[in-house]
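Deliverable D5.2: sample structural annotation.
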Amino acid sequence: MISGLQHFVFCRRQWALIHVECIWEENRLTAEGEILHKNAHNEGLITKRPGILITRGMRVSSPILGVAGQCDVVEFIRSEEGAVLHGHRGTWQVCPVEYKRGKDKQDESDRLQLCCEAMCLEEMLSCRISYGYLYYHEIRHRRKVDLTTEMRQYVRDMTEEMHHYMKRGYTPKVKTGAYCNACSVKNLCIPRLCRNPSVASYYKKMMEGADDETSS
């Protein structure tokens, strides 16, 4: 999933817990983010203005990167160069817009997710996308993101590493830190750190122990 790239950049272990071991814990922040994206992912809504088309919840994928997902918003602006759209005349400049619940982050996770979406759109529409936008709901403001060569290479490197872990079914070990307090799976992560082979096996052992006590 393209959205997994944000988890991976924040913490490889968090990504593996969610996407490899399929463990998740809902909290206020994740619930607010889910509501925000439900509003953005109205796939049936296409806004038309003079010289611009706006789609929501557009499904994208890249066989080259091996990823798939949805773009919150994609703006198509009539231009002399760009993508050819079925049912529409001329060519269109393509600009993805990713919605985020909070405000600007210190790391590159949001920018890399946006870049990955743009790379999928480029592959699907045979065009070049030079920039996109991040819209932060808390500050009600757009941030323009230039999609650089370095950023694109980072996306390739990250997705390759993600596929490597996924094929192995491996959950990396990481050092704890202050950033753990912002983790959505903090309570599920801590029991396993540097000891048991997986969180799933940790809970399995806990359940087996409870069954033994009951039977005795």
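Annotation notes: The longest helix spans residues 149-168. The radius of gyration is 20 Å.
The annotation will be released with the project's public dataset once the embargo ends.
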